[in-house]
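Running this now, will post back.
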Amino acid sequence: MEKTCEKLTQLNIDITNIKAIGVSNQRETTIVWDKITGEPLYNAIVWLDLRTQSTVERLIKKTPGMNKNFLKAKTGLPISTYFSAVKLRWLLDNVEKVKQAVADDQALFGTVDSWLIWCLTGGKDGGVHCTDVTNASRTMLFNINTLEWDPYLCQFFDIPMEILPKVRSSSEIYGLMKSGSLTGIPISGCLGDQSAALVGQMCFQDGQAKNTRGVIQMLELSYGTGCFLLYNTGKKPVMSDHGLLTTIAYQLGRDEPACYALEGSVAIAGAAVRWLTDNLGIIQSASDIEKLAASVGTSYGCYFVPAFSGLYAPYWEPSARGIICGLTQFTNKNHIAFAALEAVCFQTREILDAMNQDSGIPLTQLQVDGGMTNNKVLMQLQSDILCIPVVKPSMPETTALGAAMAAGAAEGVSVWSLDPKDLTTVTCERFEPQIKPEESGYRFARWKKAVQKSMGWETAEVQLNGNGETSIFSSLPLGFYILSSMLMLIGAKYISG
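Update: finished.
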């Protein structure tokens, strides 16, 4: 933040004009820290982390009928490695420092927003321990109907309620900056990243509202590490029958009602591009993928299912793993690059199809944001695969915009009106479909065939050693190899001696 203030000063922008601070964050990423020392007790466990799979399997086994959706009526979520309660349960089971700190009443839990607000408002010297409804709704400990931490859910996961942050609205003053160039400035906006993008895209109407062109206004797609499609359903939660999540979209003021959303979550989008860069070395930087893909304009029958963390919506299949199939001797890195972009589009179509089925209103236009929207090949591909126009705003980072809007609109700050008539229309770039629906359908059917082949790769529970790390003996072939090697060495020594 200090670097930002320095840069603003260099640009002759007066930082005394900063009236409020908004926070937007990865929602499920879990942190536990010591409230006395202010130090984290373990590394943050990010939303994509799969180490909790054995915990998930154990929790599902104790539900009636081994039903992963057993808690969905209260939480809107399936029991999955994705959500915070499972990560917190893993920390309590596997990290002695966390377990002891909780027993000694020294531990605090939070998602990244809670940690940031606590630190910025004083930390161990009186920091505010809070979160907002959008982040709380991704923990599996929060009842999305009552808007409170739920005793039954906490009992189910065996999580002490004393370590949980206070839940606030997405737009109110939580506390003041305690140090640095912005000392005394209120922190007054807090939204999980996808909810912030929904606000930044100004999707404030519920699912039945249409504008004069008949375009559904309240659906937003955000491309980042993953890919997330949110559909504003208004003031009542709507449960999905097609693998989507029910989540809280926002609550813009402590006395305002919460608004809900259906969400389709894809684990790997931009992360697939990073994998091609960092792991395979096919490209030197993320921007190179557009050139490679454009040079061939086809995957040449190659399909890439980037199920590195299993499959999220609409499958919720943790056993899946990434595959590249349909390779021939003519396939090259350009085709694989194209297939990686196409995979993002196919995954989007899967969750959009589910959303159309749940809502009963086919989408006629898709609003998008996020860093990947700078890739014009991807945007055109997305329009082609969906067979509808894709609209990209001139400001792709609407997550930051949404957090700023929530902060500026808070009571006591009031420098930003969220009244629809006061909101400025954002200029957009529009991509229209350029292939026939029959071709799109054929390619999508082949993709779904590839998805089926990615499933069922991981089924055994992961074994952990005493430090909470994966044991080498969690792999039976490796375990037998090591044991047999040790026996051979001992036998050889015995024979030679």
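Residues 302 and 327 are 6 Å apart (CA to CA). More later if anyone needs it.
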